[in-house]
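[agent] plan:
  1. take the single chain provided in the ticket
  2. run structure prediction with default settings
  3. attach structure tokens to the ticket
  4. add a short note for the reviewer (M.T.)
[agent] executing step 1
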Amino acid sequence: MGKKKESTPLTPEQVIRKSLHRLADAEDIRSFFVRLVWMALLLGILFGKVFGLTSVKNNEMSPRLSSGDLLLYYRLDEEYRSQDIIIYERNNREYIGRVIAKGGESAEVTEEERVKVNGSVLIESDIYYSTPRFEDGIEFPVTLAEDEYFILCDYRANAIDSRVLGPIKKSEIKGKVISAIRRSSL
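[agent] step 2 finished; step 3 output follows
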């Protein structure tokens, strides 16, 4: 049979040190979980109220944005300007588009497939496609109320935007795009 190893009794100082060490480990673990909960809460507030993330579902904003790109948008903007890219929701569906006109202005898509704002042809050097009217779309010109925006997609031929949906109310806007992560970069 094997010999039993006799253990020497611990001194009071050793017992106290051992207990303090176990207590310190438990305190470290508790502190870690408290910090983890605070970080999750902070991220929840940031991405629930201040910022948002969404992906581009189609190529209606091509060539600027492509299907699969990830967009970071800012929710707290009070005013949107011409050429801002925004995320908005209508009929429980999310859309992405570019602000063309805002409240108090009039917008029109002409028979010649040009965009007019307040009667002047809009020069869009970054848009490479014509802007057709849709037969089942809205009647032009459209005069926007103070809380409305006229939104167009960059790839205009078959896009669903204000030509079909009509003016977009400020309450329908989720936020302004501030950054895009290309799917090819992931």
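[agent] step 4 note for reviewer: Residues 35 and 41 are 10 Å apart (CA to CA).
[agent] ticket updated
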